[in-house]
């Protein structure tokens, strides 16, 4: 149980999963070597309007209040991935700190509104600069916007699902959609092959435990397949939409974390199967199923604390992630 003192204590120091990995201060001018992360990222996000790190000659990674993305400075203008909710001013300030060029192209990574809800602000800003914003999405994202009767602006261009590409000022942008996507059905990896950068929001949050139920994962069944698919692509830097700058080691660490969760849940189910929770006195199957999930989540958190408990956010995330894995393991064999 979390104590009241813990709830009111100062912000803790960021504790990464891979404690032996190098971390350094963010630099908007000097490219960061692959495999190096930004130090004190959580604190920097809370204390500053944005955290900006140059990746290559033409690409930057930027984090605003725990939402991260990538932008590319082309010969005439800027391409930006996503339009995270409520963060337009800070992202615009970050871009303006390294270039006077305006954003002409914006890519929807996938249709979850927290990552694209501010798109109208970018359309309006582009219009003020005399630009008709080029708004690009996969055909599957465009179809999902229609099916959901979304109020968000529709893309001006679509790229074929699951795999295709488009060009921004001579720079190829390549889509690798997941055949069976886990996070949401229009989820995939967006690659900048010449920059060796991948933008895959919500698949993984490098240096952090997975957010609540693996970032509100809609279909956990295919999570490991998606992680392996991204790991097989050629890139040096990964933007996960949240967390730190990623590398291939983060994918491997995430797969190990999931395997550990699976192991605890499997042991729990072997010791006390789901059927043992059935109790007529509870008056509802909803009640005993909820007890199963909550008990399993608590056991996952307790059993993995020695290995992962040093990570900031662990106590808030572990039980919910354990519940997600438990739900998956009783649904699919």
UniProtKB/TrEMBL annotation:
Gene3D superfamilies: Ribonuclease Z/Hydroxyacylglutathione hydrolase-like (3.60.15.10). Keywords: Hydrolase. Residues 1-33 are annotated as: Disordered. Residues 66-242 form the Metallo-beta-lactamase domain. InterPro entries: Metallo-B-lactamas, NDM-1-like, RibonucZ/Hydroxyglut_hydro. GO terms for molecular function: hydrolase activity. The keyword Iron-sulfur does not apply. PANTHER family: METALLO BETA-LACTAMASE SUPERFAMILY LIPOPROTEIN, METALLO-BETA-LACTAMASE DOMAIN-CONTAINING. This is Glyoxylase-like metal-dependent hydrolase (Beta-lactamase superfamily II). It comes from Saccharothrix tamanrassetensis.
């Amino acid at each position: 149980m979390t104590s009241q003192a813990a709830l009111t204590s100062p912000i803790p120091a960021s504790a990464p999963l891979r404690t032996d990995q190098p971390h350094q201060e963010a630099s908007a001018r000097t490219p960061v070597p692959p495999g190096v992360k930004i130090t004190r990222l959580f604190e920097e996000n809370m204390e500053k309007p944005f955290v900006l790190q140059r990746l290559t000659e033409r690409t930057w990674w930027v984090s605003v209040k725990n939402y991260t993305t990538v932008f590319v400075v082309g010969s005439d203008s800027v391409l930006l991935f996503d339009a995270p909710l409520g963060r337009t001013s800070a992202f615009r300030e970050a871009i303006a700190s390294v270039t006077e060029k305006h954003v002409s192209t914006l890519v929807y990574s996938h249709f979850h509104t927290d990552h694209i809800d501010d798109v109208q602000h970018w359309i309006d800003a582009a219009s003020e600069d005399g630009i008709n914003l080029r708004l690009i999405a996969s055909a599957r994202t465009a179809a999902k916007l229609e099916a959901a009767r979304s109020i968000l602006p529709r893309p001006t261009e679509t790229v074929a699902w699951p795999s295709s590409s488009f060009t921004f000022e001579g720079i190829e942008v390549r889509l690798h959609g997941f055949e069976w996507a886990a996070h949401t059905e229009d989820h995939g990896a967006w690659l900048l092959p010449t920059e060796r950068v991948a933008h895959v929001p919500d698949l993984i949050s490098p240096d952090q435990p997975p957010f609540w139920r693996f970032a509100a994962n809609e279909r956990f069944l295919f999570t490991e397949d998606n992680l392996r698919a991204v790991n097989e692509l050629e890139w040096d830097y990964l933007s996960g939409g949240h967390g730190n700058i990623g590398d291939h080691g983060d994918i491997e660490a995430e797969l190990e974390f999931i395997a550990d969760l699976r192991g605890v849940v499997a042991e729990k189910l072997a010791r006390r199967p789901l059927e043992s929770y059935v109790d007529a006195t509870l008056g509802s199957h909803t009640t005993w199923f909820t007890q199963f999930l909550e008990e399993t989540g608590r056991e996952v958190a307790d059993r993995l604390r020695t290995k992962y408990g040093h990570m900031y956010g662990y106590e808030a995330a572990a039980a919910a992630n354990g519940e997600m894995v438990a739900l998956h393991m009783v649904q699919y064999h």
